[in-house]
Request: fold
Amino acid sequence: MAVATGKPPARIAPMLAPFSPSFAVNEYTRFILGDEPQGGASANPLHKLRELFAGPLAFVTPLIWAAYFCSSFAIYLMNAYAVIFMENLGIARQNAAWLGSAGAILGALGGILLLAITERPGRVGLPLPRSWACRWSF
Reply:
């Protein structure tokens, strides 16, 4: 199955350049995604949904969905009850509201920073945040 069917290889090559600067594209270059199953693409949405649970994805897909649900629920609880919880700890309502707002803004900025680091092309972008996460988790 071609990675970019109908698209010129010259359009894909710049994305691969950070991994191998000497990489050259000629008129015979073709890009193939080797881990995709061979076969025709189905337009049936149920068939596409079934592909999410094929092979090792049968274990990974529910885990991703459960993680998303738990994350969304935690964000909801934080937004709905953080100020009340801080008030019960003895923090004034206005200060609790400011802390909640600051936490939300800093969380959004931290997410943008992490996205900028992890989405950088090349080999350096991704290992750095993983090493930070490993260091902070212990």
About this structure: The helical segments are 9-16, 45-51, 57-88, 93-118, 127-136. Residues 91-138 form one domain. The longest helix spans residues 57-88. The mean pLDDT is 78.
